[in-house]
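We modelled the chain as a single entity of 248 amino acids. Its sequence is:
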Amino acid sequence: ATDAKCCDDACSGFTCPSGKHLKDNAESLKGSTEGECCNDDVTGVCTGNTDSTEDVQCPAGKVLSSYLGNTTDACCTDACSTVTCDAGTYLRSDAAATPSTEKSVCCFEYLCACNSDSTGDHSCSTGKHLKAFANTIAGNTDDKCCDTDVTGKCLGNTDSATDHTCGANKVLKSTAYTIDGATDAKCCDDACSGFTCPSGKHLKDNAESLKGSTEGECCDDDVTGLCYGNTDSTKDVQCPDGKALKDN
């Protein structure tokens, strides 16, 4: 149970000659020779040199754009951070790390709404409102961002508070979105809830939301003579103690 019997030399104990350096994870590599333990030094390149102090440090407004070289001229190029974007656009958030001076690369158009910088959000002119999903639309003009307000319709106005509400026993016409008006006469049809069914019939479910003024439109036949489920539930059979309604 000794090192001599159990262990081999690790590369971490080997000293590489000038111009070479220990391989990664040298402490876990078996070896005691240059070939087993050493790699050639990386030198004279823009970045990734074995001695990191030799890596080129680009000045402000520049970013690495090459691997080969050892000067700022050879290794660095202008970054987007040097670009001034046009009105209605903004500089990309990673501008300092993006190699380009092209506005198409460096500048993004504001969205109509919900920009991280709210000063880029578009305000529609009077009589207009933001389009649906304005936060996904690139633009900062009424033409791109806005729709004309809907007003004076029975239903579907931009300000929903101005939509017409029908009176008792009335229901909005199916074409209410297209009708100019704000009265029952213009906007509403008779609802079945205002119809009286003849004997032996009863109003259909949700009669208040059904358009109709005739027996055929508004009424169903009464259910009678059954153990359970009669239109008049007082006619349903109530089983005595010890009895239960049959399944069928």
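As a brief sanity check on the tokenised model: The mean pLDDT is 95. The two ends are 86 Å apart (CA to CA).
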